[in-house]
Design goal:
Blueprint lengths: L12 E5 L3 E8 L2 E9 H56 L1 H27 L10 H12 L5 E6 L1 H5 L3 H22 L3 E9 L2 E8 L15 H12 L2 E6 L5 E8 L2
Parallel strand pairs: 4-5
Antiparallel strand pairs: 1-2, 2-3, 5-6, 6-8, 7-8
Helix pairs in contact: 1-2, 1-5, 2-3, 3-5, 5-6
Length: 259
């Protein structure tokens, strides 16, 4: 039986599905021309590959942002702290050589840890639940600051810290590290405090200083430090509070709802 084509007063372009094939048929007088054949299965495969490529691209962009942030908050801040410590050694070499040697030893140990972190990034073997002791790590970071910087009081409730999964402890360490870096670089403070406690169903991390402070209504603080802290707080699903005023220091508090 001959196929029935659209009448003259109907559309002249028809899409036919014959045996799972797309066919674009254009009628020109008595001639029927068929253009561009492609199976529906091929179209579906092409669309699926396109979706997979788009999803993979999004994953790569997110992974790049995560790595950049981790490098900034981890390795780069550690190297910066080591640099500050070594700068202070220049004055100590002649007056207190033993103290200078001790500080150089701490700097070398810190750089070895940075090397380990970088190797972890390269090999992608970073542990999912790192055996992290917040107080020990923070004390190590504070030691690298040296005599030229502010003094810090560390008050970490070890039982509260262990209530958090390792990844969240690591995020809090990076937040505290960023806060310490801001204090050393921008606050012109003589002292600071890092504390972790539990209150009203929330685990709270506090980083504060007695420095020059700033007006939050005018700006969000110097540098990119608070932006990085805010990004990490968002990843934690936590709450960030900022208390600051000119010449009255700065205090940030991160609150994580505990279950």
């Amino acid at each position: 039986m001959s196929p029935v084509w659209p009448s003259e007063d109907e559309q002249t372009i028809a899409a036919l599905r014959v045996g799972g094939i797309d066919a674009l048929v254009i009628r020109d007088g008595a001639t029927d021309n068929i253009y561009a054949l492609k199976t529906f299965q091929e179209l579906e495969h092409s669309n699926a590959r396109l979706r997979e490529s788009q999803e993979r691209l999004v994953e790569l962009v997110n992974e790049r942002e995560r790595l950049m942030q981790d490098l900034h908050d981890g390795c780069i801040q550690s190297i910066y702290a080591v640099g500050l410590s070594l700068q202070g050694c220049r004055k100590l070499v002649k007056t207190h050589p033993a103290k200078a040697a001790e500080r150089i030893a701490h700097a070398a140990a810190s750089l070895n840890l940075v090397i380990q972190e970088l190797r972890s990034f390269i090999s992608e073997n970073s542990p999912q639940d790192p055996p992290l002791e917040l107080e020990t790590e923070l004390e190590r970071i504070v030691q690298t600051i040296g005599a030229g910087g502010p003094s810090f009081d560390i008050d970490i409730d070890g039982k509260v810290a262990k209530m958090l999964p390792g990844e969240k402890r690591l995020q809090l360490l990076q937040i505290a590290r960023e806060g310490l870096s801001n204090i050393v670089r921008h606050a012109h403070a003589t002292s600071g405090r890092i504390a972790l406690w539990k209150r009203n169903g929330c685990i709270c991390l506090e980083v504060s200083d007695n420095g020059r402070g700033f007006d939050p209504k005018i700006n969000k603080g110097p540098g990119l430090g608070l932006h990085h802290i805010a990004a990490r707080v968002q990843k934690l699903g936590a709450r960030l509070q900022l208390f600051a005023a000119p010449n009255e220091g700065t205090r940030i508090v991160v609150e994580i709802r505990s279950r």
